[in-house]
Amino acid sequence: MKKVEPKRTISIFSLFIEHAQQGTYVELPFDMPSDVEEIRVGYIVEAKEGSGAVIDLGIRDSHRVRGWSGGARTYFNLGLEKATPGYLPGPLSAGSWAVLHNAYKIPQDGCTVKVTIEFTYATQRWLKGDLHTHSINSDGSYTLEENAGIMEQLGCDFIAMTDHNTSSQNLSYPRDTSVVMIPGYEFTTNFGHSNFLGVTDPLDDFRVSNQADVNDRLGVARERGAKIVLNHPHCDYCPWEWDFQVDHDWVEVWNGPWTMRNEHTLNWWQQQLVSGRRLTAIGGSDVHRPDPFVKHAMPCTWVFASSKTVEGILNGVDKGHVLISYSPEGPFVELECGSYKIGEVVPESERSRTIRLQAENLKAGDKVKLISSRGVEQEVIAPDGENGMVELRFEADHVTFVRAEVWRHFKETDSLLMAALTNPIYFD
After folding, report:
1. N or C: which end of the chain has fewer CB within 10 A?
2. Which positions fall inside the Polymerase/histidinol phosphatase N-terminal domain (predicted)?
């Protein structure tokens, strides 16, 4: 995978403040470019040693003050969904903005304020994270801060804390983290679980006693804008025993460590795809507490997203731009058909139907499979000395989809288990 870093630009400004301006507010105007995802503003004050110059810091957009930290900080981040404490996240609309300074104490000779603004732009790229986790807000032992901290350490980009039948976690997400916090809620019934993603408070009352009640609760979540996931539908302990025809967007094919429950769902999903249904598969660790096998981002869900935001990530999932690996370290598999990527539909008019598979972070002995609506089309074993990479090509004639799997022998269980799984490229 060619790791795509978001585009960044830096602007540096210098402002001299005279002693006569002491006690006044000074603006440093700048133009906010289009398509900015986040800005980072930092400043230093240059003055004679011992002069005691004090300059406060804040920012405004074209309509209002968006944050103020006084003399408490030398920098802050401001994004579409998160910001440094003291600052309001939200739209970063192009136009006239200004860094705000309070000339609290200015020496007789004046001082110079140097401001650096780093602009990070929304850029299509692969982001990775976990769409099914729990915290102390239900039956988990991790605090919200601990969950976010672990995901940061793993190098992940997003997490959904989907606590059982509560949305309280969505109201107290930590703000000072680089990890995108996707609002989550696990609709938990006695006959099946479903995740609601992307909405802070998707449901007023989770209690159900029949199929009509379930349909009603799903309808409420849908009206409030939630994306609906059928969780671990073939689990031994809490399978989906309601009607599979209920309203839903995606299915959790991979829940926690790979076991027969996931294999059953994988087979069911394949049948759905063969029938012509274009149903996106996702994964989630379902982590609750420290465990030798159930860990954060195991499996890891990768999303080709338009921006590192809740909207960008969930839109990517909705388009089927999703692959799943057993951990954040991979393996990573890309499928392409010309300019078409995982989750996209190749039109009938497209002349080339050549599928190109490129797998990375493989280990010798990994089994790479290309699977279509007809079944397994190609199968190769990753050799030694290939830098963990395999490339395949396949002419996708007379098939309605092609997807990929990687299987690996894990010594911990002495068995062959799923190591990576892609969503399909579809064909009209």
Report:
1. C
2. 129-191
**Mean pLDDT across 340-350:** 95
Q: What are phi and psi for residue 317, nearest 5 degrees?
A: -65, -40
Task: Indicate the burial class of 268 (C-beta count within 10 angstroms; 0-12, 13-18, 19 or more).
Answer: middle
* In contact, 136 and 187? CB cutoff 8 Å: no
Residue 286 falls in which region: left (phi positive, over 0), alpha (psi -120 to 50) or beta: left
CA distance 170 to 192: 22
Q: Which helix (H) or strand (E) holds 311?
A: helix 310-318
Instruction: Kindly report the CATH number assigned to the domain that includes residue 113.
Output: 2.60.120.380
Distance CA 176, CA 86 (A): 11
Choose one of 302, 329, 356: the last residue of a domain.
329
Asked whether residue 256 falls in the same domain as residue 341, the answer is no
Instruction: Give me the phi and psi of 170, to 5 degrees please.
Output: -70, -15
Determine how β-strand 180-189 pairs with β-strand 158-161: parallel
Do 161 and 218 sit in the same domain of this protein?
A: yes
**Could you tell me if 149 and 291 lie in one domain?**
yes
Q: Please state the three-class secondary structure of 67-120 as a single string.
A: EEEECCCCEEEEECCCECCCECCCCCCCEEEEEEEEEEECCCCCEEEEEEEEEE
Say whether both 162 and 300 belong to one domain.
Answer: yes
Q: What is the structure's pLDDT at 230?
A: 98
CATH code for the domain of 389: 2.60.40.10
Rg (Cα) of the chain, in Å, rounded? 25
Give pTM, 2 decimals: 0.92
Same domain, 140 and 275: yes
Residue 1 lies in a domain: no
Report pLDDT digits (tens) over 363-411. Answer: 999 999 999 999 999 999 999 876 789 999 999 999 999 999 999 999 9
- Partner residues linked to 26 by β-bridges: 101
| Residue 3 maps to a domain | no
The pLDDT value recorded for residue 3 is 65
What pLDDT score does 50 carry? 86
Judge if 103 and 244 occupy the same domain. no
Distance of alpha carbon 125 from alpha carbon 228, whole angstroms:
24
Model pLDDT for residues 283-340, shown as the tens digit of each residue: 999 999 999 999 999 999 999 999 999 999 999 999 999 999 999 998 999 999 999 9
Which CATH number does the domain housing residue 222 bear? Answer: 3.20.20.140
Range of the domain at 274: 124-329
